[in-house]
Structures are given as C-alpha cells and as structure tokens.
Amino acid sequence: MLWSYAIKYECDRCQRHYELLQPLNTCPDCGGLLEIEYDMPAMKRDLSPSLFAGRERSLWRWHEFYPISEPGCVVTLGEGGTPLIKSVHAAKELGLSELYFKNDTLMPTGSFKDRGFSLAVSFAKQLGLTRGLTYSSGNAGSSFAAYASRAGIDATVLVEYLANPLKKALIAFYGAHTATLYFKSMDEITLMLEKAVKELGLYQFVNFINPVRHEAMKSYAYEIAEELGWCAPDVMVHPVGTGGGIWGAWKGYRELYELGWIKAKPRMVAVQPEATAPIPKAFQEGKPRADRHGDPTKTIAQSIAADSQIQGGERVLKAVYDSGGFAAAVSDEEIIEAMRLLGKDGICAEPASAAGLAAVRQAVREGTIRKDDRVVCVITGSGLKQAYLIQERIPESNLQVEASFEDLQRLLTSLWG
Ligand SMILES: *Cc1c(COP(=O)(O)O)cnc(C)c1O
Ligand SMILES: [Zn+2]
C-alpha cells in the first residue's frame, strides 16, 4: 500500500512523459497541457471502497488518488467532504424526483477552489517552492492566499478588474500580494502566462496551466459516488469558467469506472452565462475547440465570465462529448431565479453557482434531462461574497412593529390570519 499512486505527468498533445517530482506547468517540449497519470493496475489490486469508509470526511480521505507522496506536506483547512443535500423545493418546482446540491459554499474560504488549492499548495510545498502566482476572478485568489500563507509560500494574485471589491479585499486579507488585472480578452491573460512559464520559469497556479489543481476536483466523483452507495448520478452539472471543476470530476468518474467501483458514468453538463458562452456555442456547432465569444462584463456570474478558454476548452468539450452530456447557456434573469430557488432549499449560492440549477430547469423543459434522472448540481461558491446582489434583488419587507404585545399580535394576524 502506498500513500499515493501517482506516477508521472503526461502531455495531452505529444504524449511525452515527465517525472512527477518537478515543478512543471505546461509541457516543456510542445506547450501542451499536462495530465497526471496513476498506476491503475496497482490501485485495482490494493484498494477497494471499504478501505475509505472509516476515514475523516475531507479531501484527504482519498489521498491515494493525488500526487502527494509526503503526508507531512499536506496543507489543509478541512476542505472537501461537503454535504450532498437532497433538494425539496427546487426538485418539486422543476418536477425532478432526485435533485441534489453538492454544497461547496461551506468550504473554508467559501468556494470550491479550496479543494484545488489545498492540493496544489501541498504539491508546491513538497517541491520546496517558495513563490507562486495566479490570476483570479475572486474566489481562486482567496483560496490561493489562504493556503499559501499557511504553507509559507509567497503568493501573488492578479485580480481581474471585474472582481467585486469584497472579493479583492479578501485576497489581501488572507495574505497575498494583489494587483488589478486589466485585459480585453482572456486570451491575452493565457498568452501572457504561457510566455512567463517559458521565459521566466514562473510557477503558476492557474487551472490547467497548473496540472495539479484539477486533480482535487476528482474528489467530487469519489464523495458523490460513495454517498450514493457507489453509484454515479445520471447527470452532473457544473458551472464552467476554465473547466477545472468539470474536467476533474469527469476524470474522477473515469477512474472509479476503470477500477470497477461504479457501473456507469454520469452525463457531464457545462454551464456558462449567455452573455459570454464559448463552450455552449462550440457545443452547438459540434466543434472540439471553442472560439472567443461574448463579453464578460455583461453578466452577474463573474466567476464563470470567460470569453475564451485555455487551449480552446478542449478538455471541457471532451468531457461533455465523451460523457454524452451537453453545454447550456443561461441568462442573468434565469440565474437570479435559480438563486432564489436555492435559497428556499437552504443554500446561499453566488450567481455563477446558481447557473447550474438554471440550466437544469431549461433542460427539463427541453427534455434533455428526464424527470426521473438523478441530477447533482455542484454549488461552487457562497452568495455571501456577492451579498450586495442579494440586497439589491430581494425586496425589503415594509412591515414594522413596535416592541409591544398588541403590535406583535397585529403583525401575526396579518401574516397568519
Ligand atoms: C472558479 C469558479 C467556477 C468555475 O470553475 P472552473 O474550474 O474554472 O471551471 C465556478 N463557480 C465558482 C463560484 C468559482 O469560483
Ligand atoms: Zn507535449
């Protein structure tokens, strides 16, 4: 039994292999994206679902599936292991018999990014790195800052100019250097970072350019399959920015399937805002790569407002096509409606996270999700980080009472009859 069964990096594009214990971002040879490979035959031989049952509920419950070989390098704040909440109200309103929310609003810094940064920062610590950089629409920056601070790694975060002021302040609060990042298209950011990897040897924590972050998102598959009695749901719904979340989860399900722990894989659904929807557009046209599309300033779903995808979004589209899933675009009004519906089910989600539920509603109407499908929406981030939106959009009650019994009685009669 090993603590980790990771064995090497492999390039998506040229299939060249690299030794794992070195700080690589993209392929040194061709610039392609790197994927971490595992010794699946050994995992099949050594591991079984029952092995995990008694362990703590956290991301690290599944350490054999990550590239960390030194337990002492783990940097953790108790991320992962979040509840899978069965919907009461949204399910009824949409007419679904089984709708679940994977509630990652409960993560240490309020978003699912904590999974990825717990793992990526642990990996960086194992390599002895002392500095790192990422860009962020808000949540990734907080997460990186929090974990890097704990690990003694000097973190720099380029914060998109569109990020709301609270999110930007939180990144500095958790201890990172911040600079506001201005750009016309996300393409420019990717180009700048790819060049910095090549010319400066800069180690980065941007999804996919960093080959470790999305490995942590495999935990969605492990956690959800375990909770459903080692069975995958029929449909997994992910809001997509870079696609690290959906790609990681898909990789996790493929591993479980290969190990023989689940009998079927879910259909993967990628959701983006109508105003800027490169993935749904490419899907509609049946293309393997996404072109630039839309305007990220025109949506409230800041965390998934990306007009272009890293390396054409090939991984995201592959997850969608290979799984028999689909991509959907939703409007801001549909997102607000979905936020309110989630609120009734006890979850305060940020707009990007509610986009998934908005897409499910569309898909049920169109028949691409059936009423008896078992559906899981990943609720990626807390609405409290965009609280002003809730204040603006939820009408304030104009009822008033003086602190007197008579006033209270009058109020209750008016409310309850
Ligand atoms: C980053 C983020 C996303 C998008 O995740 P990707 O892995 O980049 O696709 C979705 N929702 C929230 C709340 C986020 O912070
Ligand atoms: Zn390569």
Automatic annotation (TrEMBL):
UniProt GO molecular function: L-serine ammonia-lyase activity; threonine deaminase activity; threonine synthase activity
Location of the Tryptophan synthase beta chain-like PALP domain: 75-381
Domain of life according to the entry: Bacteria
EC code: 4.2.3.1
Keyword Lyase in annotation: yes
Annotated PANTHER family: L-THREONINE DEHYDRATASE CATABOLIC TDCB, THREONINE DEHYDRATASE, MITOCHONDRIAL-RELATED
Cofactor(s) listed in the protein's UniProt record: pyridoxal 5'-phosphate
Enzyme class: lyase
Annotated family: Belongs to the threonine synthase family.
InterPro entries tied to this protein: Ser/Thr_Dehydratase (IPR050147), Thr_synthase-like (IPR004450), TrpB-like_PALP (IPR001926), TrpB-like_PALP_sf (IPR036052)
N6-(pyridoxal phosphate)lysine, modified sites: 113
Protein name: Threonine synthase
Organism: Paenibacillus cremeus
Keywords, in A-Z order: Lyase, Pyridoxal phosphate
A GO BP annotation: isoleucine biosynthetic process
